[in-house]
Amino acid sequence: MTYLSDLNTKLQYKAKVRKTKRLTPANTEEIREIMIEVEDPGFQCKVDQSFGVLVKHDSDFGNEYHHRLYSVADIPSKENGKTLLTMLVKRCSYVDEFNGELYHGVGSSYLCDREVGDVINLTGPFELPFKIPEDKNSNLILIGMGTGIAPFRAFVKHIYADVKDWKGKIRLFYGAKSGLELLYLNDKDGDLTSYYDEATFEAFSALSPRPHWEDPISLDAAIEERAEEVLEMLSYSNTYIYIAGYEKVKENLNKAFINIMGSKEKWENRKAELIAGKKWAEVIY
Length: 285
Description:
Helices cover 22% and strands 33% of the residues. The protein is an alpha/beta fold and 285 residues long. It has two domains: 4-126, Beta Barrel (Elongation Factor Tu (Ef-tu), domain 3), CATH 2.40.30; 139-284, 3-Layer(aba) Sandwich (Rossmann fold), CATH 3.40.50.80. Residues 209-213 have low confidence and may be disordered.
């Protein structure tokens, strides 16, 4: 496992904010889509990579900078020699359970407050564990929550725009607190729905049963509704499972796969095979 503190932050690049727009309504949690441009030709970032953002911030641990990683949320492009990258940022905050004080996320608040023309410091790029299989007959089960849709959006767009002729099944399960926060699968910014015409692609959404509470998003139920198809996909040796999102959802996902496989032992054995074959990858936060 690679820890954030282990990553090299000495090599840095300047990036300018090209666009920033809020994707969620004002009465919901703020999630912004931010496009940045990097002029330095030495910075090359691909679909299966992430990049870091460095924010000057004095912490209680003596760190001078706050470092956070962001997945590429769209296929990187070039314009006038500059690299254009898109990221998703959710403005985060939490209440300290000991003193009851509200703290705002350092990196997310910084990025959500940036305006067009502002300059930010980047690090990386860094490898993501989500790799596109060489075999175009491979099946992909992609599970994302919240801003965890970012790497899979870029992933799916790259497969159909650049890899092409994909023969295996791609099933995307994506969850959000409410329909207003269901990114890229809605009427306003639903560009993932454009791949519904592809014979190999389907996407399924799941929402929290009580969006104003902290209930886990019902991704497990959405997956179990497709139990027959998921079980069939798991019977093939060329099926991959990639997960990106919140830690609290992992337990429910595990229960869903146990129910689909028929027993805890069968699922643990199948998951062990996926991990050993490098066909299981997760980015959990």
